[in-house]
Design goal:
alpha+beta, two-stranded antiparallel ribbon, two-stranded parallel sheet, 10 helices, 40% helix, disordered C terminus
Length: 242
């Protein structure tokens, strides 16, 4: 199914992909694609293909903020719409990735949760999955003062738990639900992921008492998910279990 869908998608999207490639070159000098070093299926290294979003001479951490000054004008749009991920259909066609699965992580992050990744890496990484849905706004809510520290303490443990949940209970039915949730998220209707069961529900953003702005988003199990930057001080450490 992965290979057939990826082949059809690459044919249907050939012109849009070509247009984006041309726009990347016109927007800033440098290559069309960027390869991110990731850990893939069964621990094999995966040089994950993306459209380049940053200036060719960009330096710094590997995490990308929504207002990252390294992003090009087109790159901001690609990051917001997730269209920079489309070239990964090539990895799906080659059997290196799946349409749905755990999101491939950097080797340095995988090493921090080696036992968990013994389970996670037994299934192919995916273009979309639980973590992509649960953390669709990751770049907007990472702490700009210390994005890596915030990611390691508040994001990565939850991602690992969700990816392990998927790897332990993967099924075609779950994949179809995740694909539906992905379409809904891309259409502006984000979903929440239950940390215990993986059930997907429409995401609600409760307001503060007195009619204030949105607080930390909650998933279907009631676990707090990192929310807007103004709420970070009130966040507690996330659970690792799933």
């Amino acid at each position: 199914m992965d290979v057939i869908v990826a082949a059809i998608a690459l044919v249907v999207l050939a012109l849009p992909l070509l247009l984006i490639a041309v726009l990347v070159v016109l927007d800033s000098p440098g290559p069309v694609f960027y390869r991110a070093e990731r850990v893939g299926y069964r621990g094999q290294r995966l040089r994950m293909l993306k459209f380049r979003k940053m200036r060719a001479d960009a330096r710094g951490g590997e995490l990308t903020l929504a207002d990252d000054d390294r992003l090009t004008r087109l790159g901001r749009w690609l990051a917001r719409t997730k269209l920079d991920e489309l070239p990964q259909l090539w990895h799906v066609l080659r059997g290196e990735m799946s349409l749905v699965g755990p999101r491939p992580e950097s080797p340095s992050f995988v090493a921090l949760f080696a036992d968990d990744y013994e389970v996670i890496l037994q299934v192919r990484p995916g273009l979309t999955g639980y973590t992509q849905l649960a953390f669709a706004r990751e770049g907007a809510i990472l702490d700009p003062a210390d994005p890596q520290g915030h990611y390691l303490s508040a994001f990565l443990p939850q991602k690992v738990a969700l990816d392990r949940l998927y790897a332990s209970h993967s099924s075609v039915r779950r994949d179809i639900q995740i694909l539906r949730g992905t379409v809904a998220t891309l259409l502006g209707k984000p979903v929440a992921v239950d940390r215990s069961t993986g059930a997907l529900t429409p995401r609600r953003r409760p307001s503060q008492p007195g009619g204030g702005g949105p607080t930390a988003t909650r998933d279907g199990s009631g676990d707090a998910v990192p929310g807007d930057r103004s709420q970070r001080e009130a966040q507690s450490a996330p659970r690792r279990g799933a």
